Amino acid sequence: MNPYEINEMLDSDFDDDDSDKDPDYNTSAFEDDSDPEQIETEENDDALSGIFYFNDENINRIESLSDVSHISGSEMSVDSPPPANIPSIIPHQAHQQIDRQWRDDDQNINNYTFNTNNSNIGLNLDLIDTLQDGTPLDFYQCIVSNDIIHKIVIETNRYAAQLLSARTISPHARLNKWHDTNECEIKQFFGLLIWTGLVSLPSYHLYWSLSRIYSTQFGTIMSRNRFECLMKTIHFSDNTCADPTNRLYKLGTVIDDIMINSNYCMQPDQSMCIDESLVKFMGRLAFKQYIKNKRDRFGIKEFKLCISPCYTIAMKVYCGKEVSNILNVGNVGNVGSNIVMELAEPYLDNGRTIFVDNWYSSVELAELLQSRNTYLVGTLRCNRKSNPKKKLKRGEIVSQRSSSNVLVLKWRDKRDLVMISSKHDSALTKLKIRGKTVHKPTVVVDYNVGKTSIDLSDQMTSYSNPLRRSQKWYRKVALDALLNISVVNALVLFQKVTSSKMSITAFRTTLEEQLINKETITEITSQKHVLEKSNRSRCAGCYSKAVKKKGRKYAQCNTKKINTKCFLCDKHFCLDCFFEEHKIVKK
Fold first, then answer.
1. In angstroms, rounded to a whole number, what is the distance separating the alpha carbons of residues 262 and 279?
2. Closest among 243, 277, 266, 252 to 313, alpha carbons compared
3. How far, rounded to the nearest angstrom, does the alpha carbon of residue 529 sit from its chain's CA centroid?
4. Residue 461 belongs to what H/E stretch?
5. What is the pTM of this model?
6. Higher-confidence residue: 384 or 341?
7. Following DSSP, what letter does each residue of 31-73 receive, concatenated?
């Protein structure tokens, strides 16, 4: 057998197949009687295969071994050790089954010192000094900085130019009147999008309707054509530099930049939580997920790392099976555990506690985090092989501790609940619930508190959500980060720095008013609006006023015609209407 035939027999780690068995997508993983551990093993067969590089040196070494040719395929199985002269293609100890010894809980708990390197924890002190009297817009700009807005402006203008140069649009399309946008207009555009979440109407064009039922002031802020042009062209990366191996290239660096700013403003305390969220999307997409216990069920899955109360500091968009060198952070054999290691990597080795649910947790993950001076607390699937099998009555507990000092505890309340922890013992805590004293394991009480941050984050982002069904997937994900996650993070900073309480709806309302305030946006735009001589036509300002007062027929007959036109707006204005429209003070 030549080396190339051996290579074909090996499963490659670099597999572009999207059909990985995700427990959130394949609901049978939860409903049938099969062992979840067996499912995870099948799911990661590709990830467990070794990598053998066929360079000239290795090929010569194999071909020179004349005594290998008589070995049969069964004798060369991966379970048997390779001959001494052949480079090993079998994964190392990270993938081998470990024989653990279990004993009754002896309350021998690991003790890790928190913040041993005396790094800055919690709120950035610079914010307290500079933004004690800050507005919601000030805190929002701490998360969505002017640099992020500037990148969006550059990519939006570039994408619009690409659309126009392609000559694939209709001659009468509104995009033919496109002019470059700027930072102030993009902020105004974001403000209008937040407005659409606060005041929900069936479709965008109704915000410009003259009907008293849909009466809004959108028309005084931005024209409908301009709004829809921006909605069509808003972009976050350069299509000409697209990476064909990266499904998320259209998101650019927006999410990474937001997370960097969020980390600068606040560092995690002792507890962190990792779980998944879902951005609703009903269109056709290769990595669209189905999560039955989520409100929206179908959409794009995001893995988030949150801290108290609902502040997001790390996020990863799930785009299906992908090529990644996770060996650098510790490959523990399943997707969920590797996600935990990737998101939490900057915060390890400092005595923190990570709370996860049963899709991420495993004994292997707890042991790996122990080696990084980090606790793991979470639920565990009830039918894991190593779980205690004893049947319990309500309120009873059975627990065991592994030789690596990881506790697995089974407690029955209304149903069996299995917990895993490297921080707790099996002690009970007294609680008063509905006037009655009940006993719960301390690990359950702490888990219920630790997991609230991401649940509260999802709850806060769902209030007045501006995302619409008609948006493309990458715009939905980016706008979710810009207008939902960033707004919630800004609200947390606002409350902590100013020590004032404000609801998420009131915060969005104030932020929207500050973003669309024309006084903050005319400084740049007014310099570009110039009246030029043109053919005679009705004044757009006078015509609009006449329509509102006496109707369209009256306006058509009585509006004066003038020969001055704003080149940038492509509208005719008399002098008074021009100065009023662009907020320019006449001298």
1. 20
2. 266
3. 39
4. helix 452-462
5. 0.71
6. 341
7. HSSS-HHHHHHHHTHHHHS------HHHHHHHHT-GGGTT--T
